[in-house]
């Protein structure tokens, strides 16, 4: 599975109502650190397959979702499980660090 683009309109359906855990990446095209972690998130999405969904929310196009989550800086990452946030972190990190953070939250 690859990453899923989520919008303000699809946030509840794709994230809060998901049957599987969801990692949400709030990002923007102009954000350097966001671009750094993008490839790692794509790889993790492929590795986790249908066990974990990795969703990306462009904060410029979808400000309501970011505001609802209290996002003040990007990249901002949240893990949702059963519709609730179970963990969050801000800033770029190497793939191994992202993977261990996801594993701990699951």
From TrEMBL:
<feature type="disulfide bond" description="Redox-active">
    <location>
        <begin position="31"/>
        <end position="34"/>
    </location>
</feature>
<keyword id="KW-0813">Transport</keyword>
<comment type="similarity">
    <text>Belongs to the thioredoxin family.</text>
</comment>
<dbReference type="InterPro" id="IPR036249">
    <property type="entry name" value="Thioredoxin-like_sf"/>
</dbReference>
<feature type="domain" description="Thioredoxin">
    <location>
        <begin position="1"/>
        <end position="106"/>
    </location>
</feature>
<keyword id="KW-0249">Electron transport</keyword>
<feature type="site" description="Contributes to redox potential value">
    <location>
        <position position="33"/>
    </location>
</feature>
<dbReference type="Pfam" id="PF00085">
    <property type="entry name" value="Thioredoxin"/>
</dbReference>
<feature type="active site" description="Nucleophile">
    <location>
        <position position="31"/>
    </location>
</feature>
<feature type="site" description="Deprotonates C-terminal active site Cys">
    <location>
        <position position="25"/>
    </location>
</feature>
<keyword id="KW-1015">Disulfide bond</keyword>
<dbReference type="InterPro" id="IPR017937">
    <property type="entry name" value="Thioredoxin_CS"/>
</dbReference>
<dbReference type="GO" id="GO:0015035">
    <property type="term" value="F:protein-disulfide reductase activity"/>
</dbReference>
<feature type="active site" description="Nucleophile">
    <location>
        <position position="34"/>
    </location>
</feature>
<feature type="site" description="Contributes to redox potential value">
    <location>
        <position position="32"/>
    </location>
</feature>
<keyword id="KW-0676">Redox-active center</keyword>
<dbReference type="InterPro" id="IPR005746">
    <property type="entry name" value="Thioredoxin"/>
</dbReference>
<dbReference type="InterPro" id="IPR013766">
    <property type="entry name" value="Thioredoxin_domain"/>
</dbReference>
<dbReference type="GO" id="GO:0005737">
    <property type="term" value="C:cytoplasm"/>
</dbReference>
<protein>
    <recommendedName>
        <fullName>Thioredoxin</fullName>
    </recommendedName>
</protein>
């Amino acid at each position: 599975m690859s990453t899923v683009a989520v919008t303000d309109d699809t946030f509840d359906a794709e994230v809060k109502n998901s049957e599987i855990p969801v990692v949400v990446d709030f990002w923007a095209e102009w954000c350097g650190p966001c671009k750094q972690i993008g490839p790692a998130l794509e790889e993790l999405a492929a590795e986790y397959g249908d066990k974990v969904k990795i969703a990306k929310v462009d904060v410029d196009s979808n400000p309501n979702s970011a505001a609802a989550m209290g996002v003040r800086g990007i990249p901002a990452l949240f893990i949702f499980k059963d519709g609730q946030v179970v963990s969050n972190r801000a800033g770029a990190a190497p793939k191994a660090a992202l993977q261990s953070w996801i594993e701990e939250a699951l």
